[in-house]
Specification:
By secondary structure, the protein is mainly alpha-helical. The protein contains three helices and no strands. Helix content is 78%, strand content 0%.
């Protein structure tokens, strides 16, 4: 197995090409990746905000979620 070495500029070009190809050929996969990333970001913000504020009991959360 051989090793490939890329400098930063080569890596950026390769990454951009890969993302463009993914977007053009597999929009469904690209969309799922973006949605997942946004959900994770939202969860991280919610966790951070929750650590600064009062906690909400589970019953209140379940009521909001409709459960």
């Amino acid at each position: 197995m051989s090793t490939v070495t890329l400098d930063e500029e080569q890596f950026k070009i390769l990454l951009k090409q890969t993302l463009v190809e993914l977007f053009e050929e597999r929009r469904d996969v690209f969309s799922a990746i973006v949605v997942e990333a946004l959900e994770e970001l939202g969860l991280a913000h919610a966790i951070r905000d929750g650590r600064r504020e009062d906690y909400v009991n589970e019953e209140a959360v379940q009521t909001i979620l409709g459960g």
